[in-house]
């Protein structure tokens, strides 16, 4: 097998497997931002991507796809249940999102997490050339950095944490907190979304492992009586802004935006929510606020519609099944109470759409609602801003989303404060165009000046320092 100078390791591969009517199989690039961000680097460095193909028991040999070498890691149905749905998405996910849903601590899930992380580490070790750079992604693979370092001391290892890192008081619930911290500290550079996340991590390392930390540096014991330096700091992720701008300028997309407004009965105001159907997104808080505004007559269904796209996610995890029931009950009640024959209060779509359709929706929407209770970054906020090439529209943004650190001109909300949220929604619908323009222009500047390419360049530059040092030693 050819070895790669640059290896990305993520739970998911950047492709989806499709099977057509005749049973013919093919691979299609999956729409994620990470894929687009890393594509140029992958092509230049002859990179490899290690990950799961998204289906249980699928055994596929490594293959090349559009200039990237893909190395599939097989997960059995049991691995999917215990490592992915269990430990990753029913322990770490709720714990790291401040226990919005109760994390379950199962020893059987933990054992599977260790086993599967080991498998990812082995696949990465086999794919990496001498002195390669390996970049591990996200909470499903927190043990991989240490495992990989033990197998391959020559490689330079980065880890990026896409979700929040919780305060120590919550993190310390985790029965395997030491192993997780040690696992992450196998990396040379550990990247977080917010400065606060990096701070929480450093505090956990000090309190739990008693290692010294200084600014972003952590002294990690390494051999007898010696230490090595690891860097833990914020590298806020972004989007491929130019692709959104291009779509927003496309005549077909603009026509589609008009068509969307017409098909909703040309309401005066459209609110929009776009989320994976996840309990971290604060969808019920937003529905509550919207329902109350209708009930109080501050808005009415003839003039206002809320479009809520909730894309299906993790549908076999109990908390997600329950959430879907709750949301759909609430939507049904609000629509039942307020709809007329010609107008709907909430157009609810439990579906996923291609990027063109999303940009058309962003252009059609007057107010974008991002009311997450906790979110690593929230790229939808940035996608909305990038798409508004007309400098119109208002972004309502939760202070609990990482994006709030960068998009200071959004209308900021605490989604738990329903009265405050309602007032913010009213302020947004009444905001004069000049003020919308001022706020949108400033937010756009930030997103355009710091796109996902800048993010990966900055992270890889930090890693290159470690690689250069290793080569000299
Ligand atoms: C979040 C996580 C990603 C994950 C994505 C979709 O953004 O940070 O690691 O891939 O959700 O979730 P899924 O479980 O479908 O991969």
Question: Helix and strand layout, with pairings?
Answer:
Blueprint: E1 4-12, E2 15-19, E3 25-29, H1 33-45, E4 48-52, E5 63-65, E6 68-72, H2 77-96, H3 107-127, E7 128-137, H4 144-151, E8 156-160, H5 168-171, H6 177-184, E9 189-192, H7 195-209, E10 213-214, E11 217-221, E12 227-234, H8 241-249, H9 251-263, E13 269-276, H10 283-295, E14 304-311, H11 318-338, E15 346-349, H12 355-364, E16 367-370, H13 379-387, E17 394-398, E18 411-413, H14 418-430, H15 433-449, H16 452-472
Parallel strand pairs: 1-4, 1-7, 4-6, 7-8, 8-9, 9-12, 13-14, 13-16, 14-15, 16-17, 17-18
Antiparallel strand pairs: 2-3, 5-6, 10-11, 11-12
Helix pairs in contact: 1-16, 2-3, 3-4, 6-7, 8-13, 9-12, 10-11, 10-14
Residues 12, 138, 162-163, 313-314 line the site of 6-O-phosphono-alpha-D-glucopyranose.
Organism: Microbacterium terregens
Protein name: Trehalose-6-phosphate synthase
Family: Belongs to the glycosyltransferase 20 family.
């Amino acid at each position: 097998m050819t070895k790669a100078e640059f290896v990305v390791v993520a739970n998911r591969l950047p492709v989806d497997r499709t099977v057509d009517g005749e049973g013919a199989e093919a691979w299609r690039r999956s729409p994620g931002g990470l894929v687009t961000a890393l594509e140029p680097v992958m092509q230049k460095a002859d990179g490899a991507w290690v990950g799961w193909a998204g289906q249980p028991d699928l055994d596929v040999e490594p293959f090349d796809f559009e200039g990237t070498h893909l190395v599939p890691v097989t997960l059995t149905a049991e691995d999917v249940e215990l490592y992915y749905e269990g430990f990753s998405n029913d322990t770490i996910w709720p714990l790291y999102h401040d226990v919005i849903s109760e994390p379950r601590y199962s020893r059987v899930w933990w054992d599977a997490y260790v086993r599967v992380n080991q498998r990812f580490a082995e696949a990465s070790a086999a794919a990496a050339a001498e002195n390669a750079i390996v970049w591990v992604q996200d909470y499903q693979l927190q043990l991989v950095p240490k495992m990989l370092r033990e197998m391959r001391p020559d490689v330079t290892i980065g880890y990026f944490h896409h979700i929040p890192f919780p305060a120590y008081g919550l993190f310390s619930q985790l029965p395997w907190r030491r192993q997780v911290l040690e696992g992450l500290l196998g990396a040379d550079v550990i990247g977080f979304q917010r400065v606060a996340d990096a701070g929480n991590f450093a505090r956990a390392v000090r309190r739990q492992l008693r290692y010294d930390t200084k600014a972003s540096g952590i002294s990690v014991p390494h051999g007898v009586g010696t230490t090595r330096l690891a860097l833990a700091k914020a590298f806020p992720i972004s989007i491929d802004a130019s692709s959104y701008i291009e779509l927003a300028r496309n005549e077909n997309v603009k026509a589609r935006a008009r068509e969307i407004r017409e098909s909703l009965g040309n309401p005066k105001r459209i609110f929009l929510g776009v989320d994976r159907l996840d309990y971290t997104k604060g969808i019920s808080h937003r529905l509550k606020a919207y329902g109350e505004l209708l009930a109080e007559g501050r808005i009415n269904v003839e003039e206002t519609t809320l479009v809520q796209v909730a894309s299906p996610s993790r549908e076999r995890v109990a908390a997600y099944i329950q959430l879907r029931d709750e949301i759909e009950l609430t939507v049904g009640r609000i629509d039942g109470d307020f709809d007329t024959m010609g107008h709907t209060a909430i157009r609810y779509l439990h579906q996923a759409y291609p990027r063109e359709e999303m940009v058309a929706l962003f252009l059609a929407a007057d107010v974008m609602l991002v009311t997450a209770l906790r979110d690593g970054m929230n790229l939808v906020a940035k996608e909305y801003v990038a798409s508004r090439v007309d400098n119109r529209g208002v972004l309502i943004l939760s202070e609990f989303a990482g994006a709030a650190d960068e998009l200071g001109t959004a209308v900021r909300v605490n989604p738990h404060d329903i009265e405050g949220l309602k007032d913010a929604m009213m302020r947004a619908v009444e905001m004069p165009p000049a003020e919308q323009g001022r706020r949108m222009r400033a937010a756009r500047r930030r997103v355009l000046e710091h796109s996902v390419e800048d993010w990966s360049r900055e992270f890889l530059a930090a890693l290159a320092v470690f690689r250069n040092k290793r080569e000299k030693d």
